[in-house]
Write a structure and sequence with these properties.
The complex is a heterodimer of chains A (245) and B (312).
Chain A: E1 4-13, E2 16-26, E3 31-35, H1 42-50, E4 59-64, E5 67-68, H2 74-80, E6 82-85, H3 97-102, H4 110-119, H5 124-127, H6 138-152, E7 156-160, H7 168-183, E8 187-192, H8 195-198, E9 203-208, E10 211-217, H9 218-227, H10 240-243
Parallel strand pairs in A: 3-8, 3-9, 6-7, 7-8
Antiparallel strand pairs in A: 1-2, 1-4, 4-5, 9-10
Helix pairs in contact in A: 4-6, 6-7
Chain B: H1 4-15, E1 29-33, E2 36-41, E3 46-53, E4 56-63, E5 73-78, E6 83-94, E7 99-108, E8 113-124, E9 129-138, E10 144-154, E11 159-168, E12 173-182, E13 187-196, E14 201-210, E15 216-225, E16 230-239, E17 245-254, E18 259-268, E19 274-282, H2 286-293, H3 299-311
Parallel strand pairs in B: 1-5, 4-6, 5-7, 6-8, 7-9, 8-10, 9-11, 10-12, 11-13, 12-14, 13-15, 14-16, 15-17, 16-18, 17-19
Antiparallel strand pairs in B: 1-2, 3-4
Helix pairs in contact in B: 2-3
Classes of the chains: A alpha/beta (245), B mainly beta (312).
Chain lengths: 245, 312
């Protein structure tokens, strides 16, 4: 039994079935990756686990430590220990980085904030008084969002494309932060189609057309992806170039 | 019986200022309770003439030519009583090459039925610079009507910036009416940030005339309306000379039964001038909201934080 269990999860948006009878167990304290091509339903899965608006009317169930969380909204799920790092983090006009980070936990000290910023490779002196707005690049906001998750230390961390907008130099800091979350006991779920991100995980699930088509250790999933693919009618059939980008 | 000094201290305490501006010899200040000047300190280059009226004051405020005032001048207009009218008639004369910033505190901490009006005639001469930051503290009853009206003239290369924000208490009713005329190479910046709750009424009229070449102007409004509050923001910017550039930016967040309206008017009278505008009215951005809620904040707390940022 995993800390987070998805049971026969299906979601239809409009007339399109995005998640298709999907069942997964995520193991406590492990780093997992959900890989698959664009349109496979990876981000939708993250949004559904988080309970975002528009992703609450699903079939099946989601269990956290054996208790269903299907009826809970975002903040209730967050208070139980689930959180999400967005692929494209929100911008907040006028809100300082420090205020944003302070919102991550009720008991947050300046030392915790500084440490989290340093862990994602950002100098607190340079950033804490800046605003989380368009004056920050997407990569900077991504790292600040990850800092907020380090402060929050949730039980389950969903990271949607954690490498998007991140330069090569900063990428290792992101990976360090992912491992730090694991060391501190978080269960990490990486949504990615990057092999570099996939290699940060211990277990991987290959997703296509809203369903899990394979799972196992990362080495096998990478190998499987690069060598063959299950033929299906989905127009986004996984292709090597896309996955290995 | 309270001395003038006691009243001045009482007014300043309502502002919860951390610095002790009244004690700093380098900071000029003037404190007016209703129609009485209860405290003042002037510095070289600043001239202030005050006539007490029945319900307020008539004031000439002048920065002499070429004088650069380093620290913000503190003006405090307030009323301790629950009821009354305070009328401020203000003539501001920033002479050529002068520079000054004014921090104007308007405090009505006990207001039940208070009307505060300001009628200002402001001249900022060639090459001068004047920043006017107006910060209000109101009672929690909403029993305040604030009616500031200003006519501003910017000379060549002059700069004028004004900020209006409510630090504490309920808006009540605010009716801001600012109109500015800008000569060549001058710069205008008007900002208003107001948070309406209950049945507050917010009415903003900001008008800029970019009459000189290379004149620049930005009108920015950030308003939140919650409860049954109402806001109407009228921004008008006209560019009538070559290379005059302007921008109108209005954002209003609507929650509960609040009603917001934005009327941006942008007008260009010269082919080499350029004015843009953006206006956004609506609920809190869902992605912002869910980002904060995914950290465990309740929806109400997340909305408060977003609005707090927007109005900061």
């Amino acid at each position: 039994m995993g800390i987070l269990e998805l049971r026969n999860l299906s979601l239809t948006l409009g007339d399109k079935r995005i998640l298709n009878d999907l069942s997964i167990d995520f193991w406590e304290g492990h780093v997992h990756a959900i890989v698959g091509p664009n349109g496979a339903g990876k981000s939708t899965l993250a949004s559904t686990i988080m309970g975002l608006q528009g992703y609450r009317e699903f079939e099946g169930d989601i269990f956290l430590n054996g208790e269903s969380i299907a009826s809970l909204n975002v903040d209730a799920r967050a208070r139980l220990g689930i959180s999400l790092g967005w692929q494209e983090p929100a911008r907040f006009e006028g809100l300082s980085v420090k205020s944003f980070l302070k919102a991550s936990s009720k008991n947050v000290s300046d030392d915790m904030i500084n440490e989290a910023m340093e862990n994602v490779g950002l100098n607190p002196d340079d950033y804490l008084s800046r605003k989380v707005d368009k004056t920050l690049s997407g990569g900077e906001r991504k790292r600040i969002e990850l800092a907020s998750l380090l402060i929050m230390q949730p039980k389950i961390v969903l990271l949607d494309e954690p490498d998007s907008g991140i330069d090569v130099e900063a990428l290792n800091r992101i990976f360090d932060a992912i491992q730090l979350l694991k060391q501190r006991g978080s269960t990490v779920i990486l949504i990615t189609h990057s092999t570099a991100v996939l290699e940060q995980a211990e277990h991987a699930f290959l997703m296509c057309h809203g369903a899990i088509v394979d799972k196992g250790v990362v080495g096998n999933i990478i190998k499987y992806f690069e060598n063959k693919c299950i033929p299906c009618g989905h127009k986004n059939v996984p292709i090597v170039e896309e996955i290995s980008k | 019986m309270k001395t003038n000094s006691d009243v001045a201290d009482e007014l300043y305490r309502t502002l919860q200022l951390t610095d002790n501006a009244l004690q700093d010899p380098d900071i000029a200040h003037l404190v007016v309770n209703h129609n009485n000047v209860v405290g003042s300190h002037l510095i070289p280059g600043l001239e202030v003439e005050v006539d007490e009226l029945d319900n307020g004051i008539q004031m000439l405020f002048r920065i002499k030519e070429g004088v650069q005032v380093k620290k913000p001048i503190h003006l405090c207009f307030g009323m301790i009583p629950e009821n009354g009218l305070q009328q401020i008639n203000l003539t501001v004369d920033i002479q050529s090459g002068a520079r000054a910033a004014v921090l104007a505190h308007c405090t009505f901490p006990n207001a039940v039925d208070v009307i505060h009006t300001m009628d200002a005639d402001i001249t900022i001469a060639e090459g001068a610079e004047y920043t006017y930051t107006e910060r209000h503290v109101h009672s929690s009853t909403g029993g305040v009507q604030v009616l500031p009206k200003s006519r501003v003239r910017l000379g060549k290369g002059a700069r004028f910036k004004t900020d209006f924000e409510l630090l504490k208490g309920r808006v009540g009713s605010i009716n801001i009416d600012y109109e500015t005329t800008c000569e060549a190479h001058s710069v205008l910046e008007m900002n208003a940030r107001i948070n309406g709750t209950h049945d507050d009424k917010i009415n903003i009229r900001e008008v800029g005339h970019l009459n000189g070449e290379y004149a620049r102007g930005v009108l920015t409004s950030r308003i939140a309306v919650r409860g049954n509050s109402i806001a109407e923001v009228y921004n008008e910017l006209t560019a009538s000379a070559p290379y005059a550039i302007g921008h109108v930016d209005c954002k209003e967040i609507v929650q509960d039964n609040g009603i917001a309206q934005a009327i941006p008017i942008v007008r260009v009278n010269h082919p080499k001038a350029h004015v843009t505008h953006e206006a956004a009215i609506g609920s809190v951005d869902n992605k912002q909201l869910e980002t904060l809620m995914s950290r465990g904040l309740s929806e109400d707390d997340a909305v408060d934080l977003i609005i707090q940022g927007l109005l900061s």
